[in-house]
Structure formats: structure tokens, C-alpha cells
Amino acid sequence: TEHGFRQFLAVGKFHSGWLRAEREERREEGIALMRGWVEVCRTIRSECLMPTYLAWLAETCARAGEPAEGLALVNEALAVAAQSGYQHWTAELHRLKGMLTLRLEDRNGGGRPVAERTAEACFLEAIETARRQHAMSLELRAATSLSRLRAQQGRSKEARALLGSVYGWFTGAPRARAVDNTAPKS
Length: 186
Prior knowledge:
CATH superfamily: Tetratricopeptide repeat domain
Helix content: over 70%
Largest sheet: none
Distance between the termini: 54 Å
Shape: globular
Strand content: under 5%
CATH class: Mainly Alpha
Order of helices and strands: HHHHHHHHH
């Protein structure tokens, strides 16, 4: 901060918080640091990376057992992206919205068919957005989420076909571990 680069210190605190939150015993401390940076972004109206940071915080809140808070953060991120034009993370936001919708229903109960339809629409929007942006890794993530849902619904053949069509782009060596973890299962 000697040269006035306080924003970099705040960004570092966000990432430090994210790393701490990955460890269950330090999750609350980590989330507090992450929220601090998000508040700085809100205060200074920094919209460029706001959707990404809100998405990371939303995922972390979901892992901490707070899917409703995560869903609210994703909705805020989608609004910021729409208003600002920073659409680089929109596909992932739609995917997260679907995942959090399912997780919230699992926690509260009572509306699984409605939650599944909502989540499926979110996953399809994520896939279409990723395709428009030529964001193959985000398309793979969304296709993986939709495939899991379809497999849970007993639609395994559709799930394999969808995932196989996207997964095929990622052939060759070396494969990323994340891609190998999405391989269609028999």
C-alpha cells in the first residue's frame, strides 16, 4: 500500500479467504474475508470482476450449508453482469444457479420436480451462453451438471449423449484432471 495499490491488497485478502474457506475448520474466517472484498467492490462500484467474485463466494456459501445465500449472490452477479456488460462468467453463473436451486430444494424439501425443471433450464442457458462465447470449459461444466441431473432422473442415455458430445473436444494428451473426472460413466 506504500504506492496506493490498496485494491491489490483487498484482492489478495479475497483469495486468502477463499483458500481458508476450502478448509472446513477455517471456513467462517475465509467467508468473512471474501465478503469483505465483495463489500469493497460494491462500495467502489467495481463491476469488472464482481460476477466472478460473487460466484466464488456463492459456491463457498453453498459448501458451508447456505445455498439460499449462495443463490442470492448468484442472482446479484447475474444482475451486475447484465447491467455492466461483463458477461465473461455468465455461463458459470447460470450453471451455479441450477446447482444451488437443486441444493436448496434438497435442504428445504417439497418441490423436487419444480426445482429440477428450473435447474434444467439454468443448465441449458449455461450451455447456450458458453457456446455463444466459445467457452468450451464452461460448456463442459454445464453439460456435466445437466448430465448428472438427467442421470438422476433415469435419463442416462440422454446424459451420456450430451456429455459425450462435449467431452469429445477434450481428447488428446495430456488431459486435465478436471476433464477426466467428467468422463461418462456406464
